[in-house]
Amino acid sequence: MKAVRFDQHGEPASVLRVEELPLPAPGWGEVRVRMVASPINPSDLLLIEGRYGLRATLPATPGFEGVGIVEESGGGLLGWLRKGKRVAVLGARTGTWAEAAIASARQVIPVPDSLSDEQAATFFINPATAILLVTQCLKLPRGAWLLQTAAGSSLGKMIIQLGQVLGFQTINVVRRREQVEELKRLGADVVLVAEDGPLREQLRAALGLDGVTYAIDAVGGDIGSQAVECLADGGELVLYGLLSREPICLDPRTLITGSKSVRGFWLADWAKNSSLIQKLRLIRRIRRFFRSGTVQTEVAKAYPLADVNAAVAHAAKPGKGGKILLRFSTSE
Fold first, then answer.
1. Cα dihedral sign, 317-301-63-124
2. Distant-in-sequence, close-in-space partners of 8: CB < 8 Å, separation ≥ 6
3. CATH number of the domain that 85 lies in?
4. Catalytic positions, written as ranges
5. How many CB atoms within 10 Å of residue 273?
6. Do 94 and 158 lie in a common domain?
7. Where are the alpha helices (DSSP H) in the chain?
8. Looking at the domain assignment, is residue 215 inside a domain?
9. Which pTM value belongs to this model?
10. Which of 52, 144, 195, 240 could disulfide-pair with 46, CB 3.0 to 4.6 Å?
11. Strand 66-73, strand 86-89: pairing
């Protein structure tokens, strides 16, 4: 089979290559999945760069999720039941940027025929993160205002869509002016452009608010630092990404005065610390949101495996208009 590999950390477009590897065999409780498509997520790029919370054992194949067909079971009832099914892969031992991947039978979820390969490939990481941020981390009540950075990202758009269903209102920070009307059409209540001045001043001008109780940030750097400055007394900001690759800088008095707080969220930690029942409940909720159209992933372009270097370069660009996928085969 062909697989994407890297044997050193660095700029993804420079260190990735496509290799021919032996077809892997699943162990007991595992399945082999013939991959159909896999997204290029920010976490994938950070892993390749060596900046992620987990360190890859080199050489490695990237890819945390995707969609494919279970073609072989290594043993066990669940693997046997999954054989021949089209599944969302929620973590593969061998990485999903390959024509075949090995995963635990517990980490492949059958997806309905009504769900396209593109949507099934992005079934878990973004939807799970978005849902957990607003329903568990912040427990947003109906009518609450949520300030979010990276609002034009795939996950940011999901937050806007969830707000329409769950009843909270969104203040959306973007870096490009052309995103304003797009997000308003999607249902964004307020859209702020970072270059138009300090976010706190824009917030006051737009809504008459001196601060917000709830905020999430996926950017870091100056924009993330300004988002912290927008917190009201007792407010909380949850960090879940580092798109700028730059740290947040703030005056400690910003948090001390008014007892504000900043904390992190990492989906891998949630998965590690949650019970099987909690995970199944989340998956059922994601399925419901997909079926209703509440959660949808916009795909900008799909690349064949041979063009992985062009694909990761595209994925790293701002303003790409949606998720970038690697496509291996059809599910027919």
1. positive
2. 15, 58
3. 3.90.180.10
4. 52
5. 8
6. no
7. 12-15, 42-49, 77-82, 117-121, 125-132, 154-166, 179-186, 199-207, 221-229, 252-256, 267-273, 276-292, 308-315
8. yes
9. 0.86
10. 52
11. antiparallel
Which positions ≥6 away from 1 have C-beta within 8 Å?
Answer: 20, 21, 22, 23, 24, 98, 99, 100
- Which residue do the tokens 């969302």 mark? 88
109 within 8 A of 88, measured Cβ to Cβ: yes
Residue 83: domain span: 2-122+297-327
130 and 253 part of one domain: yes
Q: What is the CATH number of the domain that holds 155?
A: 3.40.50.720
Clarify whether residues 180 and 262 are in a common domain.
yes
CB 213 within 8 A of CB 235: yes
pLDDT tens across the length of the chain (332 residues): 999 999 999 999 999 999 999 999 999 999 999 999 999 998 999 999 998 878 889 999 999 999 999 999 999 999 999 999 999 998 889 999 999 999 999 889 999 888 899 999 998 989 999 999 999 999 999 999 999 999 998 899 999 999 999 999 999 999 888 889 999 999 999 999 999 999 999 999 999 988 999 999 999 999 999 999 999 999 999 999 888 889 999 888 888 888 899 999 999 889 888 888 888 899 889 988 888 888 888 899 999 999 999 999 999 887 777 899 999 975 54
- Measured CA to CA, the distance from residue 209 to residue 214 in angstroms comes to 13
Which residue type sits at 51? R
Which residue from 61, 91, 64, 72 is spatially nearest to 30, judged by alpha carbons? 72
Q: What are phi and psi of 211, to 5 degrees?
A: 180, 170
CB 149 within 8 A of CB 133: no
Q: What distance in Å separates the CA atoms of residue 165 and residue 293, rounded to the nearest whole number? A: 11
Q: How far apart are CA 303 and CA 314, in angstroms?
A: 10
Residue 136 is given by DSSP the state I
Cα 223 to chain centroid distance, Å, stands at: 19
Residue 32 within any structural domain of the chain: yes
Structure tokens at 156: 């940011």
